Amino acid sequence: MHAIRHTLRRSLLPLLALAATAVAASAQSGPDIEHWTTDDDLDVYYVHSPTLPMVDLRLTFDAGSARDGDTPGLASLTSNLLSEGAGGLDTGELARRFEDQGARFSTDSGRDTASISLRSLNDPETLSAAVEALTLVISEPDFPEAAVDRERRRMLVSLRNSRQDPGSLAREAFWETLYGDHPYASRPGGSEESLEAMDRDQVATFFDDHYVRENAGLAIVGDLSRAEAEAVAEHLGSSLRSGSAPEPLPEPEPSAKAGETIHIPFGTNQSHVLMGQVGYPRGDDDHFALYTGNHILGGGGLVSRLAEEMREERGLSYSVGSRFSPMKQSGPFLISTQIRSDRTQEALEVLRTTVNDLRDNGPGEDELQRSVRNITGSFPLQLADNRSILGYVANIGFHGLPLDYLDRFPERIEALDGDTIHEALQRRLQPDEFVTVIVGPQDEDGEEADEEDLEGAE
Questions:
Q1: Whose CA is closest to 326, among 379, 407, 399?
Q2: How far, in Å, CA of 60 to CA of 79, rounded?
Q3: Four-point Cα dihedral 67, 73, 78, 81, nearest 10
Q4: Are 271 and 428 within 8 A, CB to CB?
């Protein structure tokens, strides 16, 4: 502890004080993102944002549930336990280290990534102390046995509760049906069998294997000069353990159940419906065309085609939407809605007809222009605060996107025409191969899911 504190205050604090004055970044459509690697080869992505005297930073690791292997829930459990003590400090003592500086510390885990985030005032003394506490988390997590058992049991309770939620049942069944044996099918929240058997050694091993410098990227956004940011990055980079990045995930194959409908009986007045296919990865050339095409289809709220057909014209659903979710490898295209159970078959037909119409005929000029104006007009609001910028910058780093991605986003959208969107939709959407998951009362023909179909809901 003393050695870590001494090193930090000796190396980081003087640099923070030395570089306390910075020139504001020039106004532009997107933030100016700078990239470099530390002496220890940690990738850093930095945006100077002097609006508030705050600093937000995030370490992102390729350590999501896709890395669970044969132990579903391990990535989430590891992430959740990072706040449960480090460097000999218990949960309360570690939390007070952050709270004493007015800093906010959090962790998160998804299918692709796990992240550790910190928000602090930019005052050198305050930031130095907050970064010191963060250093303990990334270099000396304790994973106490009692905390492992407590969090493991909490996840078990959450898992059991999710079985009473039709939306949760539908989501898990959809991912498992769509991705089959691919790592993306692994449940982030785990399974009963895996959580019951999980122990501290597995958590510690997962951390040692995945929370390493070679598997990390650092995003820094805030009122911090380049020199100050470099000092923080160098310290964090040297504090992370050395290891190796995992092998890239395989590209998902088309679903073995393409075109099938899975019905999971559930006692409710509404049916939860998820419908879709494997989509595309981050950085795909068709991204902007598909993003805009989906905005027209179901991503544009109440003015989208799906909302018009399902809600306004027929009263089949109060809410309906669609989205592409590109990931490190191909993420899903997904349509989601809740519909009256006695009109399920009618609603499914409307969904399929609406998708096919846009895919086969492309967008109209007027709706294309409305969508372009809506996307580009709302884009600055998505960059209105440092946390939002931090999320974008961390994703740009993790997925290896161009540094001018945010700068060029509006112009890439504005350059699209109807033919480009039409061609992309025809190439990438195959409605006849959609996987459909329905969670609700037995279908209108009186048939229930068989045992194989229900495996995804157990």
A1: 399
A2: 11
A3: 160
A4: no
pLDDT classification of 269: cutoffs 50, 70, 90: confident
The number of beta carbons lying within 10 Å of the beta carbon of residue 74 is 25
The pLDDT confidence band at residue 140, using thresholds 50, 70 and 90, is: very high
- Give the CATH number of domain 261-457: 3.30.830.10
- From the number of C-beta atoms within 10 Å of its C-beta (0-12, 13-18, 19+), residue 26 rates as exposed
Give me the phi and psi of 63, to 5 degrees please: -150, 35
* CB contact at 8 A, 293 and 270: no
Half-sphere exposure of 179 (CA within 13 A, CB side): 25
Instruction: Look at the alpha carbons of 227, 229, 232, 233 in this order and tell me if their dihedral is positive or negative.
Output: negative
Tell me the pLDDT tens digit for each residue of 309-365: 999 999 999 899 999 999 999 999 999 999 988 899 999 999 999 999 999 999 999
- Give 83's contacts (C-beta < 8 A, 6+ positions apart): 91, 94, 95, 105, 106, 107, 137
Choice among 95-99, 146-150, 174-178, 442-446 with the minimum mean pLDDT: 442-446
Helix runs in 36-90, H state only:
74-81
Query: What's phi and psi for 305, nearest 5 deg?
Result: -65, -45
- Of 250, 334, 327, the closest CA to residue 281 belongs to 327
| Per-domain boundaries in the chain | 2-24+31-239, 261-457
Strands (DSSP E) contained in 98-170 are 104-109, 114-121
* pTM given for the model: 0.89
Please list, in sequence order, all residues whose beta carbon lies within 8 angstroms of the beta carbon of residue 101, skipping any fewer than 6 positions away.
120, 121, 126, 127, 129, 130, 133
Domains 2-24+31-239 and 261-457 share a fold: yes
Radius of gyration of the chain (CA): 24
Cα(342)–Cα(445) distance, rounded to whole angstroms?
11
What's the rounded Cα separation, in Å, for the pair 282 and 330?
Answer: 8
Based on the number of CB atoms within 10 Å of its own CB, is 41 exposed (0-12), middle (13-18) or buried (19 or more)? exposed
Provide the CATH number for the domain formed by 2-24+31-239 in this structure.
3.30.830.10
Residues 6+ apart with CB under 8 A from 279: 290, 324, 325, 326, 330, 331, 332, 333, 428
pLDDT band at 13 (very low <50, low <70, confident <90, very high): low
